[in-house]
Amino acid sequence: MALVPYDENLVPGLSKLHKSSAEFEFADHRLRLAQDWSGLGVAGVIWDAAVVLCMYLELAPVNLKGRTAIELGAGTGLVGIVATLLGGNVTITDRKPALELLRDNVKENIPSDLQGAVQVSELTWGEGLEHYPSGGYDLILGADIIYLEETFPALLRTLEHLSSMESELLLSCRIRYERDKRFLRLLESLFSVQEVHYNEQRDIHIYRAVRLKGKTEL
């Protein structure tokens, strides 16, 4: 959600983030996504949480065929692109500054016969939610979106609006700070939360959450 660049001198191993593109192979497709660190900061590059979530979607028993999915804070769009290639009807969202890069990556990596199954849309958490169907998504996806504490209330309102009792939420993240744990505790006020995967090599957790019965508001 935030377009704030890290200081490359303070964070080790960031050289790959300064490349103009990154390549992957998912869902029997070779993907090449543009990156823009200098212009978009953290929203313009691909983080490990997105890669691990794509691996999970591809290899785990997550059924995407014919399901409606939405990705929050998509950045470059890797997760939403892979979800589309795996059969989902996907809305890929981020704030306005990230949309041009996001649209370019979708256009370059989604085959023409699947372009109708994906759309790119502006979404600032907690704002304009009436433009998105309440409880209208089978699957809600987020990779590395819980790192700014000031965004937590708006993010929770957004998750509440988008989800129904039948929705499934998948969050992929690195637990860096105590505030990340606080978000998970806040999430448990509305959702039943379970860790379903941990990638030890990349230190990435994936949490699955479903709405708690009887919980309709924060």
Automatic annotation (TrEMBL):
SUPFAM superfamilies: S-adenosyl-L-methionine-dependent methyltransferases. GO terms for cellular component: cytosol; protein-containing complex. Pfam families: Methyltransf_16. It is found in: Cytoplasm. The keyword NADP does not apply. InterPro entries: Methyltransf_16, SAM-dependent_MTases_sf. GO terms for biological process: methylation. Belongs to the methyltransferase superfamily. METTL21 family. PANTHER family: HEPATOCELLULAR CARCINOMA-ASSOCIATED ANTIGEN (PTHR14614), PROTEIN N-LYSINE METHYLTRANSFERASE METTL21A (PTHR14614:SF14). This is Protein N-lysine methyltransferase METTL21A. It comes from Electrophorus electricus.
